[in-house]
């Protein structure tokens, strides 16, 4: 990790320090040899040179063999007799997963519901798993299972449910894995196909604008806009009659 700064020529008394989770782990004064401290005492490469300039030569923090417990908040501070400054950053070690799986099936508790399951195995640290339907519909997990072994490697599974009538077959189902405090992202995607024969009513679907549309007879997933418009009009008129009836009842 590098610490970038500027020192004016007239400044004296320069000292550079590195902290890990607010504990001092490295100190360098240009007239002396850099020193590792505390739990990093024997884990730093203190002779690593970043520059030939005397006030910038040993500014970097170099960990020989990064371990899982080296994840945390690092801070570099520089000071002279005239000035002081510091910067902090989060360093997160990620052990990539061995497997990321995405699966869907009929929900055992309700025939109308689709159960979606996303599982990740042997990853560090604990990741976030997000279920996405149709590219922009985020499912709230109905259940989450997390386990970790003695080496702090995580297995995690999230479950989500959605009413099949809200899906236009075929539609995409995805799972996005992210690791907090890092740019690590992995994705899995599959396609849901409705296995139900396309009868008159099973072909009725509601689109993202709330309009009813009817799938074409060939079952290829193409929408019939005219039929959908007529059905939407019928539903609107039915609702208008109900509203009128309710209004008359109140009077």
From TrEMBL:
Leader sequence residues: none
Domain of life: Eukaryota
UniProt protein name: Ig-like domain-containing protein
